[in-house]
Amino acid sequence: MSDPQTLAVYGREAERYRARFADKGADGHLRAFLDGLPDKADVLDLGCGPGRAASLMQKAGHRVIAYDATPEFVAQARELGVDARLARFDDLTAEAAFDGIWANFSLLHAPRAEMPGHLAAIARALRPSGLFHLGLKLGEGEERDALGRFYTYYTEEALRALLAEMGLTVTDADYGRGEGLSGSTDPYIILTSRRPDHG
Fold first, then answer.
1. What does the alpha-carbon distance between residue 133 and residue 19 come to, in Å, rounded to a whole number?
2. How far apart are CA 74 and CA 49, in angstroms?
3. Bridge partners for 136 per DSSP
4. Beta bridge partners of 13
5. What is the DSSP-derived secondary structure letter of residue 3?
6. End-to-end CA distance of the chain, in Å?
7. pLDDT tens digits, 79-94
8. The pLDDT of residue 30
């Protein structure tokens, strides 16, 4: 994610964003992701924000690398002891390096035209049987929210087709509604998928 306006919003709102989640432990989605990993797994948090989830993954005994394109979030994550790196989605070039990749409401800031390339990079970076958590907002089109952040919305059918095209098999889907930083309440989808265990 490299949209300057979106990055500027997160930089300006970093403390408020961190405060929203500061007292929350692992929710059901994170617990399910952790349950699906092998012991001492290598995990990438792609778009880690303040580092809360990455920190909880580390405390569960996993080796975690975290990427975020917002310097303020990288600094916050490092305060929690996370190996957080200033990086964009395009910087993911590893191959068969991770047992799990967690992209929780981060890839929704990528333009639609770039999503296939990002998902292909994720598929390459996963080891056989690797687990991929993807959280996005449901809908159609691209727009900016009240804070000026860029969003791309997806239907479930479109997401399933994209994941299948990259060779990832969806194993679970969950839905809900949540209030975001801008104050709007939007429907979302969580898709869990795996890379095949052969190659």
1. 23
2. 7
3. 189
4. none
5. -
6. 28
7. 999 999 999 999 999 9
8. 96
Residue linked to tokens 């801008």: 182
Q: How many other CB atoms are there within 10 angstroms of residue 160's CB atom? A: 17
CA dist 99 and 60 (Å) reads 14
Residue type at position 176 = G
CA distance linking residue 78 with residue 101, whole number of Å: 19
Single-letter residue type at 82:
V
Q: Among residues 49, 63, 39, which one has the least CA distance to residue 135?
A: 49
Would you place residue 183 in the very low, low, confident or very high pLDDT band (cuts 50, 70, 90)?
A: confident
Closest CA to 115 of 87, 139, 151, 69: 151
Cβ–Cβ under 8 Å, residues 95 and 44: no
Residue type at position 76: Q
How many Å apart are CA 139 and CA 79, to the nearest integer?
A: 35
Sign of CA dihedral 93, 116, 14, 189: negative
Percent pLDDT > 90 in the chain is 80
